[in-house]
Amino acid sequence: MQHWVDFKDLIASTSGFDRGSLHVLASVPLHVICALLLRRPLTSFWPWLLMLALAGVNEAASGYADGRLEDWEIPGSLRDLLLVMALPTFLAVALRLRLLSPAGRRPPPSRTLPMLPVSASPREIIVDAEFEEIR
């Protein structure tokens, strides 16, 4: 678990962002990856739940990196969990509300093929490429 914490510290030190900002920046791409892995839309709560589980495992790994979870680490872990879940929650709810609104609904795509007009008389004059009449 210490390797995971060291890896996150390396990313934070090389990127120039603090760990809280990295939680926010990584949350939306991870939410999209969760949706792709589950083959569900972002409006589904399954990608959100997977994201919550991954964030919980991440915070548990960070908390137990030294072998035990101290009382003073719990508020910071909860703050990190809220930072990670804030944008995916907003995104999922906003997309779901858009789908529920009348403006967000689209008619289903038409699966019928367009009908081509059929000529009534079989003896119509046809003109070929050299503009000669063919009967």
Itemize the secondary structure elements and their pairings:
Blueprint: H1 2-15, H2 19-38, H3 45-63, H4 73-100, E1 126-127, E2 133-134
Antiparallel strand pairs: 1-2
Helix pairs in contact: 2-3, 2-4, 3-4
Going across the biggest sheet, name each strand in turn.
1-2
- How many helices in DSSP terms? 4
Mean pLDDT: 78
Series of H and E elements: HHHHEE
Q: Tell me, briefly, the overall form.
A: elongated
Please give the largest β-sheet.
Answer: 2 strands, antiparallel
Please mark out the parts with pLDDT under 50 across 5 or more consecutive residues, or reply none: none
Structural class: mainly alpha
Instruction: Give the strand tally.
Output: 2
Any idea how many domains?
Answer: 1
Query: Compute the gyration radius: what is it?
Result: 29 Å
Distance between the termini: 85 Å
Beta-strand content estimate: under 5%
Helix content: 55-70%
Describe the structure.
The chain is mainly alpha-helical. The protein has one domain (2-100). Helices cover 60% and strands 3% of the residues. The chain has helices spanning 2-15, 19-38, 45-63, 73-100; strands spanning 126-127, 133-134. A two-stranded antiparallel ribbon has the order 1-2. Strand 1 (126-127) and strand 2 (133-134) form a beta hairpin. Helix 2 (19-38) crosses helix 4.
Keywords:
about 140 residues; mainly alpha; two-stranded antiparallel sheet; 2 strands; about 60% helix; about 5% strand; elongated
